[in-house]
Each structure stands twice: as structure tokens, then as C-alpha cells.
């Protein structure tokens, strides 16, 4: 657990993300300390998902310095990326389960990069019994005990979301990036999923994109409001009230700042082009979430 | 034309007009085929098709294999003047033929099986090059696609005729002919399987910090393997059908017996052969379909 000497898990300096000449995200400075639970709120296209994708390494910024878990992202080699990705649990929209693997096998994917797992076991998908038991326990806590042998493409959207959460539990990450982890879930499952997310991130730093204000107390003690790629507010949970959120979500009526023409109309941040797929699912998941 | 005002057509009306035009072109083509055939006098059914049909049907209705049990043990062939030319034990003769038939069926199966496997081996690298989502260098991708298209365009029989001239008569020519033609079909099917991979699932596995071989065995392999097996069964099934005919050009198997029976007008033997071919193809089709459904 060697976190950077100053205890920062995320350090962003002068970050800009662009796509097709549009500025999607512009953060002069953002720091998140170890153990913090941060929620990101904002309207569609505000840059929330883009921020998570930058931290997860799926979007390369146009300029700026990004440091995650004490590592400068632009200096990492392949092995360094793998270690960082193992320590960073990602629950992003459009990051799917493997359709033809069972729920249990999908959960075990979270443990692939654990040190000490023999390579042949991870290749043959023949995992040690202790690990399998751990995966089953993770599924049990989410109420999926009966589904462990079902293939992922036979599961409902909500069940898949939960399997993703169980996969996260096995990964034991130090930083969790979650993009609307409850998007496809009904109210009871939402509570369950929030509990599971907090459990998986109990010893970690949690960064969540949240759309339902009612979930903020469950998932965060610090809230960052984004609009058109810029930070509008960054304050403790206690300081967030309905008026603040209403003002944030009403923002698209306001003229876009220079250099961000139409950014507010972008339904969701496009990515770097190397990573296709996902945006249609984003839209679908958002529709399902209402 | 200038006098009439241009009436803008709605998209659906334009679509219907386009379809009508297409149907018109098709109708004209069919008509041209019929008229030119008739003009050349090639549109005839021969001198007495009805009698021939009845005669063939009568021969077909008594497949030769029945003679193994019900045939005469002493069939005498006599000349026009009543001189005994030859005596034949039909049961023995047909039993021998049945054995030859079993061996030929096995040869046909060998040709289809080994030809399909060879085709798969040849097609895999070409499919990897031609799959659009793997972004192989454009020159290589174009070359691979060209090879696959040519292989698909040339019929197995044509490959067979050429190969019989190169490697000689026998099953080897059949195996190579099947392999070369099926390589084209395989390459296309494999490339489509690879193109339908769920990129997002692969990214999700990579996002857990998995190494490239781990990503391959946990995300790519389980998605692609069932499709590859399904493709293989499909092409194999198709080739069993195709290889029954390869003997006609001397590439061994059931086709050889078919060509023999046809040239000697042994319609009852042809009936036996057809029964075997239909049973073989239908049996394998049913089996392969069940396996492919189980893999879905």
C-alpha cells in the first residue's frame, strides 16, 4: 500500500481533453487523496465519463499532467499500465462482461493479474479452489448465488452490472472508477449495488459518476460538479443541496463558454477513436436509467 | 419535358419505382435466356422423354443392393442365337460391389475431412490478415482478400481437374481441390467471426490488468472458438456433399462409382449409390446441425 508520498491518489494539472477540435474536459487542477469517496455530478456531456476514461487510460489527454496512484500516466510502459490497471478497478459503461463465459468465470477475471496466480491456470481458466470460493462468495453477497453457472449473455442487464461489481471485489483495487454503477438497476438492487461498491472499495479511493442525488450520501463524502468540461463546484457532501444541483443541471440553457461550442449538446464524451463501441451502450443504459 | 412541372417523388415512391425497374431488368434477362435457347433449338426434351423416364424409374425402383439377398444365384447371359455366354452369381457380384461401395464411401469421407482441415489451416492466417478490425497493413489485407475471393470463385471440380493433372489420379488430388476451394469460404467465415468480436468485453478484461495472453485466453478465445467450430462443421458438411462428385474427374471416392454406373447404364447400381450418398449427406447434416445448435 505505497501511496505517493503526499497521500494523493489522483493528481491532475492543467488537463485538457479534446475530440474533433472540441474541448471535452478542461481541469486546471484536481487532487483526490487516498481513502476519499468522491462523486462526480453533471448533465449529459459534461465530461464525467471522459474524466474516468482519462484516469483509466482509455482516453489520452491533449495536454496536461495526470498522476494516478503515484504514477505519471504519460511515462508508463506496458507492464506499468498493467500494474496500474490491476490496482484501478474500473466499472465503466460499455466495459462488458465476456458474453460466453459464466458469471463465475467473469468474476474470476478480476483476479487474473493477482501476483502468485500461475500463468497456466489463468490461461486454462482453471483457478485454484480458494479463488473460486472467493468468487462464489462475491456473487452470493449480491444475490447471484443461483446464477453462477449461467452464461453472461443469458443474464439480465441488472445482473450483468452486479457481476461486474463482483469482478471488482476480486480485483481488490486501491482506486475504484465507477460510471453510474446503478444505471440498469431497480431500487432494491440499487441499494444492494451501492453496498457492494462500498464493500469493494472499503480500503480504496472511490470515484463515482452519480446521476441520482439520493445516492450521493451512500457513495460520497465529496462532490464535484462538472459542466461543459469544467469544474463548477467541488465541496464536501454536507455543502451540497438541491439548489446547487438544480443550478448545475439547468446549465445547458446557459451559453457555452468560448472554445466549447455545442459541447453541452454532446450526448456523451466520444473517446479517442482507438476504443470503439460503448457509446451506443451508453445511450441505451441512460435510457434504461430514465 | 420542359412543359411538365417536375413532380418531386416521395422516398417511398422512388423506392417502389427502383424496385419495379429492377424487376423489369430481371424479367428481360429471363426472357433473353429463354428466347436465345429456343432460337438455337436447344430447348427440347429429346425424342421420347416419357418412355425414357418410365424406364429409368423402373430401373431405379430396384436398387442393386437388394440382389445381395434376393438376386438369382445363377443368371445366364445368352447371345441372340441362344448360346450361353456367361453365368453369374448375382448375389456374389453385388456383395463385392457393396464392399467397393463401403470403401469408396470411406474415401469420400477421407477427402472431405482432410480437405476441410487443410482448408481451415490455410485460411486462418489469411482470415487474420483480412479481418477489418485487426487493421493488418492494407497491402497484405488486400492480397489476402484477393486470394480468398479467387479461391471461392474457382469451383472444386476445376481445381480437381487441374490437380489431377499435377499430382495424378487419386484422393490426394481431391483433398487438395477441396482444400483450395474451401479455403475461400473459410477465410470469409473466420474473418466474419473475428469481426464480430465484442471489443468492449476485451477492453474490460484488459482493464483488470490482465496480460495479453490472459486477455486472449479469457476474452478472445471463448468468444471465437465456438464460432470457429461451427464454421468448421458447416464447411465439412458442405465438403462431404462436394466430394461425392469428385470421383467423376478421377479424384477417388463415390463419384468414381457414379461415373462407372452411368457409363454402363447400370441404373440399379446408380440407385444404390444415390441412396448411400443421400444417407451420408443427410446423416452428417443432421449431426453437424445439432452440434452447431448446441454451440450457440
Give the key terms.
heterodimer; A: alpha/beta; Rossmann fold; globular; B: MetI-like fold; two-stranded antiparallel sheet; 2 strands
CATH classification class of the domain at 91-295 in chain B: Mainly Alpha
Uncertain segments of chain B are none
C-alpha geometry of chain A = globular
Helix content of chain B: over 70%
CATH superfamily of chain A: P-loop containing nucleotide triphosphate hydrolases
Order of helices and strands of chain B: HHHEEHHHHHHHH
Strand-pairing-aware structural class of chain B? mainly alpha
Number of domains of chain A: 1
Which percent range describes the beta-strand content of chain A? Answer: 15-25%
Average of the residue pLDDT scores of chain B: 87
Query: How are the strands ordered across the major sheet of chain A?
Result: 6-7-8-3-9-10
CATH class of chain A: Alpha Beta
Q: What is the helical fraction of chain A, as a range of percent?
A: 25-40%
CATH topology term of the domain at 91-295 in chain B: MetI-like fold
| Mean pLDDT value of chain A | 80
CATH superfamily of the domain at 91-295 in chain B: MetI-like
Amino acid at each position: 500500500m505505497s501511496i505517493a508520498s503526499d497521500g494523493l491518489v489522483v493528481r491532475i494539472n492543467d488537463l485538457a481533453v479534446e475530440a474533433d477540435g472540441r474541448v471535452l474536459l478542461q481541469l486546471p487542477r484536481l487532487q483526490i487523496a487516498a481513502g476519499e469517496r468522491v462523486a462526480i455530478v453533471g448533465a449529459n456531456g459534461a465530461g464525467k465519463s471522459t474524466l474516468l476514461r482519462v484516469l483509466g487510460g482509455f482516453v489520452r489527454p491533449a495536454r496536461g499532467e495526470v498522476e494516478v496512484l503515484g504514477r505519471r500516466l504519460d511515462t508508463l510502459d506496458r507492464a506499468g499500465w498493467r500494474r496500474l490497471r490491476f490496482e484501478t478497478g474500473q466499472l465503466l459503461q460499455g466495459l462488458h462482461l465476456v458474453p460466453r463465459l459464466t458469471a463465475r468465470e467473469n468474476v474470476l477475471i478480476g483476479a487474473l493479474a493477482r501476483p502468485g496466480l500461475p500463468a497456466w491456470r489463468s490461461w486454462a481458466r482453471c483457478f485454484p479452489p480458494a479463488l473460486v470460493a472467493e468468487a462464489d462468495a462475491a456473487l452470493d453477497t449480491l444475490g447471484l448465488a443461483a446464477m453462477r453457472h449461467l452464461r453472461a449473455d443469458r443474464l439480465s442487464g441488472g445482473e450483468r452490472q452486479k457481476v461486474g461489481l463482483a469482478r471488482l471485489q476480486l480485483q481488490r483495487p486501491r482506486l475504484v472508477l465507477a460510471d453510474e454503477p446503478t444505471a440498469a438497476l431497480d431500487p432494491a438492487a440499487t441499494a444492494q449495488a451501492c453496498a457492494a461498491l462500498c464493500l469493494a472499495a472499503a480500503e480504496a479511493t472511490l470515484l463515482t459518476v452519480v446521476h441520482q442525488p439520493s445516492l450521493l450520501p451512500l457513495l460520497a463524502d465529496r462532490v464535484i460538479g462538472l459542466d461543459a468540461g469544467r469544474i463548477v463546484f467541488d465541496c464536501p457532501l454536507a455543502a451540497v443541496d438541491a439548489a446547487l444541483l438544480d443550478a448545475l443541471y439547468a446549465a445547458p440553457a446557459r451559453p457555452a463558454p468560448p472554445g466549447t461550442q455545442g459541447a453541452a449538446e454532446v450526448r456523451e464524451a466520444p473517446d479517442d477513436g482507438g476504443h470503439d463501441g460503448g457509446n451506443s451502450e451508453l445511450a441505451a443504459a441512460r435510457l434504461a436509467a430514465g | 419535358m420542359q412543359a411538365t412541372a417536375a413532380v418531386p417523388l416521395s422516398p417511398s415512391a422512388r423506392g417502389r419505382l427502383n424496385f419495379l425497374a429492377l424487376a423489369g431488368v430481371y424479367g428481360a434477362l429471363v426472357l433473353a435466356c429463354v428466347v436465345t435457347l429456343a432460337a438455337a433449338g436447344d430447348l427440347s426434351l429429346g425424342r421420347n422423354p416419357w418412355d425414357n423416364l418410365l424406364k429409368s424409374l423402373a430401373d431405379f425402383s430396384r436398387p442393386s443392393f437388394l440382389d445381395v439377398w434376393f438376386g438369382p444365384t445363377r443368371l445366364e447371359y445368352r447371345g441372340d442365337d441362344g448360346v450361353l455366354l456367361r453365368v453369374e452369381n448375382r448375389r456374389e457380384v453385388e456383395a463385392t460391389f457393396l464392399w467397393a461401395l463401403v470403401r469408396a464411401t470411406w474415401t469420400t469421407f477421407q477427402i472431405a475431412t482432410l480437405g476441410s482441415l487443410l482448408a481451415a489451416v490455410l485460411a486462418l492466417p489469411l482470415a487474420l490478415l483480412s479481418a477489418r478490425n485487426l487493421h493488418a497493413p492494407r497491402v497484405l489485407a488486400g492480397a489476402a482478400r484477393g486470394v480468398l475471393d479467387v479461391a471461392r470463385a474457382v469451383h472444386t471440380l476445376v481445381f480437381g481437374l487441374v490437380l489431377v493433372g499435377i499430382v495424378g489420379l487419386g484422393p490426394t488430388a481431391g483433398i487438395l481441390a477441396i482444400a483450395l476451394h474451401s479455403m475461400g469460404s473459410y477465410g470469409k467465415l473466420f474473418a466474419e467471426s473475428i469481426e464480430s468480436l465484442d471489443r468492449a468485453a476485451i477492453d474490460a478484461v484488459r482493464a483488470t490488468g490482465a496480460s495479453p495472453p490472459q486477455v486472449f485466453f479469457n476474452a478472445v478465445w471463448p468468444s471465437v472458438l465456438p464460432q470457429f467450430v461451427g464454421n468448421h462443421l458447416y464447411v465439412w458438411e458442405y465438403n462431404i456433399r462436394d466430394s461425392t462428385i469428385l470421383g467423376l474427374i478421377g479424384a477417388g471416392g463415390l463419384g468414381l462409382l457414379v461415373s462407372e454406373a452411368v457409363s454402363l447404364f447400370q441404373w440399379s447400381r446408380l440407385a444404390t449409390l444415390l441412396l448411400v450418398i443421400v444417407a451420408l449427406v443427410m446423416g452428417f447434416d443432421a449431426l453437424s446441425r445439432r452440434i452447431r445448435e448446441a454451440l450457440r
